[in-house]
Design goal:
Length: 111
């Protein structure tokens, strides 16, 4: 019988697959390698560096985009972070879609 941890990993895998579908091919292949078992040694340190880089988003090359990617990389190996990502990622995606729809219609994001 599959354990709850197995189900969490499957849900996280589906979230990562959805993200990979939206990324350019080259970046998608890098993310796929990072979340695979062979990327385990570099995944956690790189995730921490991405989170730190996300806080310095005012600098060139560094940006807010680094923060969610770092959290996602850490979630692969750390179960409490994985559970948090599984709960919050769909909500964040829904808000992002709503924001983009409003922006496309010209309603403005602040309303």
């Amino acid at each position: 019988m599959p354990t709850p941890e197995f189900h969490e990993k499957r849900k996280l895998d589906r979230l990562i697959e959805r993200l990979n579908d939206k990324l350019p091919d080259r970046l998608s292949s890098i993310v796929s390698w990072l979340v695979s078992p062979s990327g385990m040694l570099i995944r956690l340190p790189l995730g921490i560096l991405f989170i730190i880089g996300g806080f310095f988003s005012f600098l060139p090359l560094l940006g807010f985009w680094m923060l969610p990617l770092g959290i996602l990389l850490i979630a692969v190996d750390v179960p409490p972070v994985r559970r948090w990502v599984i709960r919050t990622w769909p909500k964040i995606e829904a808000r992002w879609r709503l924001y983009r729809q409003r922006k496309a219609r010209g309603d403005g994001a602040g309303k």
